[in-house]
Every structure is written in structure tokens, then in C-alpha cells.
Amino acid sequence: MREIEFRGKRKDNGEWVYGNLIIDEGKYYICLQVNDHIKRDDYEVYMVEVLSETVGQYTGLKDKNGVKIYEGDVVYFNYREPLKHKVVFEDGSFWLADKDNQYMSMHEVKEICHGASD
Questions:
Q1: Distance CA 47, CA 76 (A)
Q2: Maximum distance among all alpha carbons in the chain?
Q3: How many CB atoms lie within 10 A of CB 75?
Q4: In whole angstroms, what is the distance from residue 97 CA to residue 100 CA?
Q5: pTM, whole model, 2 decimals?
Q6: What are the phi and psi torsion angles at 13 (to 5°)?
Q7: pLDDT of 25-67, one tens digit each?
Q8: Contact at 8 Å (CB) between 49 and 12?
Q9: Distance of CA 92 to the CA centre of its chain
Q10: Alpha carbon distance 9, 37 (integer Å)
């Protein structure tokens, strides 16, 4: 089974948080990973409001350094020279979009990285 996870930047301090996405009355929340954030004495679950424009889903893939790749990430791969693409979700799949919005399947690329110098 594939891992389903979202991330977003907290509305109060801009830090990235990871977990399940909840949208309620136009507000976006990340429900933090239960195992990490339940207080054993009261079983409180934490939901954090996030900026909607920062929300992205985990693609199920990792870059060549083992870092998870999320929708919205800017990634690079070498094809004669380092090429910069943004990870997008379109038509039920994750794609790599270049500056001209030309799409390429993420599965066609062998070594994706988050930094051009990697």
C-alpha cells in the first residue's frame, strides 16, 4: 500500500508540517502524525491550520538522496544539462512541468534531486 501524506506551511509561523489533510469551511489543516503527537495521558490529536497555497501531496517517490518528493517541489535531473521542473498533479497523476508547462512523467527520470548542484 502506498503512503499518503500531505504537507503545508503553518499559518502561524511558516514551518512545514506533515500529516493528513483536512479542509473545513474553506480552511486547510494538517492533522499531525498521530503516533508522533498524541499525548498518552489525554490522547489529544493536533490539527494545524496551513496556508492553502503551500499544501502538497507526497508523490510516493524519493529523490536520489532519499528525500521525499511532494507536489509543488522544484526538482532537477540531468539530461545533457541540469533541467529544472516543478512537481504538479494533473489528470490523476504526478508530473514534472518545465518552464513552458510541458509535462514529463516522473517515472521516466532516473535520478531526481532537490538541488541543482547535487
A1: 32
A2: 56
A3: 24
A4: 8
A5: 0.82
A6: -140, 0
A7: 999 999 986 555 555 555 556 889 999 999 999 999 999 899 9
A8: yes
A9: 15
A10: 17
